[in-house]
Design brief:
Length: 642
């Protein structure tokens, strides 16, 4: 029952409650002591009625001031513990001193003054027990010393009234102590439950603001922190940097090694990020997206160097029990107040820079610049124009032949979108398709384009196939794919002569829905080509989930393939892979005879590219075919002559 130090919170609460009551105890002591001294002044010597009470008073006032001054201070648990333990010892001394003084007064007076001493001792001890109820040990010490002496003294007096008072006092004291005990237990329970509630609410706060996997603050905390830092920067007139990071190649790791490895990889990325930062803070925004808020930033050039150093650290191999994993990261950076003045703008611009990093300079950090701003404006204009009513009539398709190099015969054409806008002029599909995708309106482009492509192709000879590019968004929803199916069914073109080209990005979305969509299209008889193969990171297991019929090797591997051993190797393995999987393979973007020769040597058969023809208008398709036919007749004749 001594002062406990095992629960610091309880100790502090005890200290707080105690300091609020103890000055009152000294006040009661003072007033009753002087009341007793006054009634004894004419009978007892002055050293007993003036000097001793005066010494007591000085002590009491001194302690009263001490406690009064510390009442609002929240001391550390060790200090509180020491103060309470000291009070315990002091309580014993005070009890002995006051009791002794009371007994010294008894011989001097008559029955009245003696009764006053008894009253004084009883009432003061009761008040003290009450005032000391948060320091049970002190309350017990005082009760034991004062009452022990009191009861022993008055019972031994053989005076019946005093004996009765002593017995009564004993009973009252027992009652008081039990009340103090109950009260203290309730107090303890209350403090502990308050503590639990605090822990719980701390935990709730943590749950709401921390990412449970990486232990980094989460998206919610990110926006709150960004808001605060932005306000500080605005007030102080300083710059604030925001970096948004997206991992490159995380999905395949997840697919190939499983989610537990993916999770550990994210934890490791979180750790590397945190240790790479000094004054800045790292956050996990969700999935494989992270962010950095940097309040103290150098000039732009140094900022990009620092950001690239972080990206570099994330690129170092990750050693896991399952094997060594290598991924990289791209980062978009925006700076307040340079080109962004609000929280939303800062985030959007960093995100835009990230999008650019992903598209153009993968695995690097890119700072949002004035160029990006004009690009945003241009894109906004394009998006605005895409939403206007004349779009359908402004869109048309051109056709690029796909040639079988074993017999130099065109086997089909790929339809490519073209848009001649009244205001903007000719806009490249490489520009407007991604904008339409981001704006969520790409199906309003797919529909008229597919109709026009099918209408042209239905005029072709029966052996020619048509390839048409679908956007991931066309396959992502049931309505999207049903509208494609509807257009194919209502056209005069045989679905079995149609190849639909999709890119790996389709798999970045709802894989199950994409699978259903692709299966529905296969059911119609369409072929499915995987476009731009090689540039993504899709693992083969993922690709295998789709019933593909063709793959198209991306132009980036075909360009100068005869000169670049790396490209040569990749094309070779992609050709082997497609053969093993029983898929046809088209090499895109063949521009030169050297590239063609290299492809031929590697066993490639289907080729598309400027070497044979740029995309042609619907009108020029027939001309191209007759010219090709004429050429091959000539070649046959030459061959016959030999
Ligand atoms: P893609 O599907 O990979 O199309 C091939 C692109 O390469 C076409 O660009 C084509 O003109 C170009 N190309 C073909 N041969 C060569 C060559 O030898 N050298 C060079 N440098 N380029 C060559 P285009 O027409 O500008 O289309 C760009 C992209 O826009 C397409 O890439 C495709 O992803 C998208 N796209 C085009 N039309 C459509 C469409 O109707 N729907 C959808 N969703 N996307 C489309
Ligand atoms: Ca294509
Ligand atoms: Ca392509």
């Amino acid at each position: 029952m001594m002062v406990r130090s095992d629960n610091p919170e309880l100790l502090k609460a005890q200290y707080r409650a105690f300091t609020r009551q103890v000055p009152m105890m000294y006040l009661i002591l003072l007033s009753s002591t002087w009341a007793l001294a006054v009634t004894h002044m004419h009978v007892a010597p002055p050293w007993l009625t003036i000097a001793v009470p005066a010494v007591f008073s000085i002590g009491c006032i001194f302690r009263m001031i001490f406690w009064w001054r510390t009442r609002n201070i929240d001391p550390p648990p060790s200090v509180a513990h020491a103060a309470l333990a000291r009070t315990n010892r002091l309580a014993a001394c005070i009890a002995v001193a006051f009791t002794l003084w009371s007994f010294l007064l008894i011989p001097y007076g008559d029955a009245y003054t003696q009764s006053h001493v008894a009253f004084y001792m009883a009432i003061t001890v009761i008040s003290c027990i009450f005032c000391l109820m948060y320091l049970r040990s002190a309350a017990f010490v005082v009760a034991a010393i004062v009452n022990g002496a009191f009861i022993a003294f008055f019972i031994s007096s053989t005076q019946p009234t005093f004996i009765a008072i002593a017995i009564n006092m004993l009973l009252v004291c027992v009652g008081m102590i039990s009340i103090v005990l109950t009260n203290y237990r309730n107090f303890e329970r209350m403090v502990v439950s308050q503590q639990r509630t605090e822990v719980l609410s701390n935990e709730n706060f943590k749950l709401a603001n921390m990412d449970s996997l990486t232990d980094l603050p989460n998206r919610r905390a990110f926006f709150a922190h960004l808001e605060t830092e932005l306000r500080t920067a605005r007030d102080a007139g300083t710059r604030l940097g925001l970096g948004v990071i997206d991992l490159d190649g995380f999905k395949p790791v997840n697919d190939l090694y499983g989610h537990s490895v993916g999770d550990r990889l994210l934890i490791e990325v979180g750790k590397r990020l945190s240790s790479a930062l000094k004054a800045s803070a790292a956050f996990r925004l969700g999935g494989d997206e992270f962010a950095i808020i940097a309040p103290y930033i150098p000039d732009d050039a140094q900022l990009v160097i620092n950001a690239n150093a972080i990206v570099e650290q994330l690129r170092a191999p990750y050693h896991m029990p399952e094997g060594t994993v290598q991924i990289s990261a791209s980062m978009g950076i925006a700076v307040f107040p340079d080109l962004a003045s609000t929280r939303e703008q800062l985030f959007d611009r960093a995100d835009y820079a990230l999008y650019h990093a992903k598209r153009t300079r993968r695995s690097e950090a890119i700072l949002f610049t004035a160029d990006h701003e004009s690009q945003i404006n241009a894109e906004a204009r394009i998006e605005h124009m895409l939403k206007q009513t004349e779009l359908e009539s402004e869109l048309f398709v051109v056709f690029q032949p796909i040639v079988d190099i074993s017999n130099e015969q065109t086997i089909g054409f790929e339809a490519l979108a073209r848009w001649d806008n009244a205001v903007l002029g000719r806009v490249s599909p490489a520009q407007f398709i991604p904008i339409a995708e981001r704006a969520g309106i790409v199906s309003s482009l797919t529909r008229p384009l597919l109709k026009k492509a099918l209408a042209s192709a239905s005029q072709w000879e029966d052996h020619l196939r048509l390839s048409f590019n679908l956007s991931a968004h066309d396959l992502n929803s049931c309505e999207g794919v049903l509208s494609v199916v509807g257009i194919i069914e209502s056209s005069e073109f045989d679905a079995r002569r149609l190849d639909l080209e999709i890119t790996e990005t389709a798999l970045a979305h709802d894989v199950e829905q994409v699978k259903r969509s692709v299966e529905m299209l296969r059911h119609l008889g369409c072929g499915i080509s995987l476009d731009d193969f090689g540039i993504g990171y899709s693992s083969l297991t993922r690709l295998h989930a789709l019933p593909l019929t063709k793959i198209k090797i991306d132009r980036s591997f075909v360009t100068c393939l005869h000169d670049k051993p790396a490209s040569h190797k990749i094309v070779k393995s992609l050709l082997t892979l497609s053969r093993d999987m029983g898929l046809e393979c088209v090499a895109e973007g063949v521009e030169t005879a050297e590239e063609l020769a290299a492809l031929r040597q590697l066993g490639g058969t289907l080729v598309q590219g400027y070497f044979y023809s740029p995309p042609l208008s619907a009108h020029d398709v027939g001309k191209f075919l007759s010219e090709q036919r004429a050429k091959s007749v000539m070649a046959e004749r030459e061959y016959d002559k030999l």
